[in-house]
Amino acid sequence: MARFALRRLLHASATVLLAVTLAFVLAHAAPGEPMLADAERLRADAGTVARLREDFGLDRPLWTQYALWLANVARGDLGQSFTTRRPVAELLLERIPPTLLLTVSALALAVVSGVTLGTLQAARAGTALDGLLGAATTIAHSIPVFWLGLLLLLVFGQQLGWLPLGGMSSPLAESTMGAMERVWDVLRHLVLPGLTLALVQAATFARHQRSAVLDALGEDFVRAARARGVGEARALLRHALRASLAPTITLAGMAVPALLAGTVLVETVFGWPGMGRLTADAIAARDYNVLQAVALVAGVAAALGTLAADLSLAALDPRHRK
Amino acid sequence: MVVAIPGDADALLPPIATSQVGAQIADLLFPRLAALTHELNTVDDSGFVPVLAERWERRDSLTIAFHLDPRGRWRDGVPITAGDVVFSHEVYSDPAVGSPYRANLSRVVRVSAESEHVAVVRFSGWYPEQLYDVAHYLRVLPRHLLDSVPRASLASSRFAREPIGSGPFRFVRWRPGELIEVEADTTWFRGRPRLDRIVFRVLPDVPAAVTALLAGEADAMEVIPQRDELERVRRDTTVRLVPYPSPFVAGVAFNLRRPQFAERELRRALAMATDRATIVRSLFGEWGEVPPGATSRMQWISQSDVRQLPFDTAAAARLLDSLGWRDGNSDGVRERAGRPLRFTLLVPTTSRLRQEGAVLLQAQWRRIGVDLRVRAVDFPVFDRETRAGNFDAAFFSRTLDPSPASIAQYFGTAGIGGDNIGAWSDPAFDSLVAAATSARTREQALPRWRAALERLNDEAAAIHIYAPRNHAAIARRITNVTIRPDYWLATVESWGRATDASSRGH
Fold first, then answer.
1. What are phi and psi of A297, to 5 degrees?
2. DSSP of B142-208, one letter per residue?
3. Gap between the Cα atoms of A203 and A117, Å rounded
4. A179: burial class by Cβ within 10 Å (0-12, 13-18, 19+)?
5. DSSP β-ladder status, B371-377 and B342-348
6. Spans of chain A below 70 pLDDT
7. Are B92 and B138 in contact (CB under 8 A)?
């Protein structure tokens, strides 16, 4: 198991390195320069622009910039943001907690609802309910996440007025709230972005879970259980469901990159102050250092998600340790 | 009061706060020595009112002495002194700080502390906007708190994020990407602000901000740039639109590095073939207007009867004919020496208005045989290409300063390589601007500015196509709202908040 874990860890590290290299190349290949010298905004003269370029090392060859960035990262220095001129690590530390709250909540919601729906579909396979849920999950899977977000915002935020329209808290009321009220306030703000992010993933989980449970229901151990007089509900929940969860664990790990990618749009639509929003702003401003750092964090998170899934699977079923 | 803002601030330290939001909030925390009045008269001393300075005197044509109000205090209780003014000038002027306002203070040669409360500013030469430059661009910073911070690290310092100022509001908190909060300083020596707190809330875009406003989750927006969103607000009874003169003007700049556009009559033909009134109507309806030229409504030199080229497609066609541009092969596009009259207009994808305007221009110019290609690019690309001169024509949008001198930056020979993206160089215009900027009074300056603006229009250095009619959107529960055009929150200390019950039904 230890050798397996080490092998997977090396694999994950190589993936992260590849991801950040790719991010570096793509960011620099995109046309446009960092907005150090936004003519309409800064009215900076040519000398100031040249000095800023020099300060940020943008006057050096690309490979030198990349090597320097890697060396600095190895020392724990992620550089400075071109736009705010603050340490990138500081910016990330501010933005990671909201994104973590959003993605973890969305993942939990997606797994629970996806597994429940998929299991229900498998239990009622071939019925109208199965067909209805199948159609619903297909639609949910096909909807662009930003469109879904806008739709939810329009209905539950604007039309019905049940939930806040965006942000992470109610700024004016916040100072008069107690601790529990603040938690409740954040939860209310979390509902729509969390739901938006979770729905697409929940559809994926449901579809996989349905086929996994159906497969398990046809396995010998379930048939044997039934032969021993175990009821249908118990055979489903105790035996088939348990056996079908292994691919779901893998899928949950694999969902982390998709969720992180989704946060860029969801956080922008809902004004959620997390890493996704930071990424969108950094892309617009060509803030290379922030983009690189985000790619690094996202790469590490994705690799950790996959690693955790691999290790859990290997722990559950030794055949996966190969 | 909750103010909906379109993006987060970059910093709250005046010399380095370059984002619009950052600069606006910094204004609440760091007041000026003197402030412009609503007339935005930048040349006469009578156009200013005391803030940190209780008065000022002109010792000679090169010297202004500012007498600081002894009641002024930093939020930590330390008095504001002339030493702070001296220190502030050093910070703004230091290349290591990289302040974009450094150039605006380039004619200030020395600032010295004559006594604890008298700061003396010395200029390199006489010019009418001496007071404006110091009062408008130089904010007083606390020497005792910033002296030990290396200048190159000011931008990344804690102070730039959690400033201690001397204004009517004090900084409370900044949650990046979400909100910035300031609260009233009850001890502000010019009187306590009526609003207890202002929360600047980051909202992703204009529709989201308007929705928050209409839902009561926000109280104010500086400007609503989209016609459909303006209509939404107008239909609502809880929010009102407050008009104020706009600092914006947008149009097409020709790149005179291209031999094609060095031809004056071609530029004039294009200007005369532009039906600006129709473009404005299509883009804005009643919410926009045709600008009289390179100036904005906000500037004191703005005059609506400045001479302009008429919209006259027949005359435009005759001009092109006379230049030898004719449609020989009847494909609808004129040619000369086998070369079609074709060029590209660069527009940024971030501006829906400019993209739509470009399409309308394309259709209008097609009627006189011009094949205009529209190239929409990401803003950083637009910025890079226009700065480098890699374009035929560019659809620009400018936010002008109260000072008309900013027009010279965009069209003066000295601005080439900087804001003068089209590399327009005209000695006659330069001398007219020089005469206007050296006029001793507003009355002397006005006709000179008119002549300069008319010269630009005659030469068609650019076509100024639209200017929005600015409207702030303010919840009716916010009372006593007045707006100074260059800075909409300039008088926010006097704004108040009615109870929700009393504001209903107004």
1. -65, -45
2. -HHHHTTS-GGGTTTSHHHHS----SSEEEEEEETTTEEEEEE-TT-TT---SSSEEEEEE-SSHHH
3. 9
4. exposed
5. parallel
6. 32-49, 316-322
7. yes
Using a CB-CB cut-off of 8 Å, the residues of chain B touching A289 are: none
Residue with tokens 């006379």: B322
Q: How far apart are CA B131 and CA B134, in angstroms?
A: 5
Instruction: Judge whether B166 and A139 are in contact, CB under 8 Å.
Output: no
In whole angstroms, what is the distance from residue B106 CA to residue B242 CA? 36
CA dist., res. B269 & res. B114, Å (int): 59
The candidate with the shortest Cα–Cα distance to A26, out of A62, A78, A79, A76, is A62
User: Cα distance from B151 to chain A (closest Cα, Å)?
Assistant: 13
Q: Above 0.95 for ipTM, yes or no?
A: no
CB–CB of B299/B398 below 8 Å?
no
A85 touches chain B (CB under 8 A): yes
CB contact under 8 A, A165 and B211: yes
Give the strands of the sheet with B179-184, arranged side by side: B169-175, B179-184, B197-202, B2-5, B220-221, B470-475, B239-244
CB contact under 8 A, B377 and A31: yes
With CA atoms as reference, the chain A residue closest to B95 would be A48
| Those residues with Cβ within 8 angstroms of residue B118's Cβ, 6 or more apart along the chain or in another chain | B65, B66, B67, B68, B82
CA distance B495 to B473: 14
Q: What is the pLDDT of residues B271-294, one digit of tens each?
A: 999 999 999 999 998 899 999 999
Closest chain A C-alpha to B176 CA, distance in angstroms: 7
pTM for the predicted model, two decimal places: 0.82
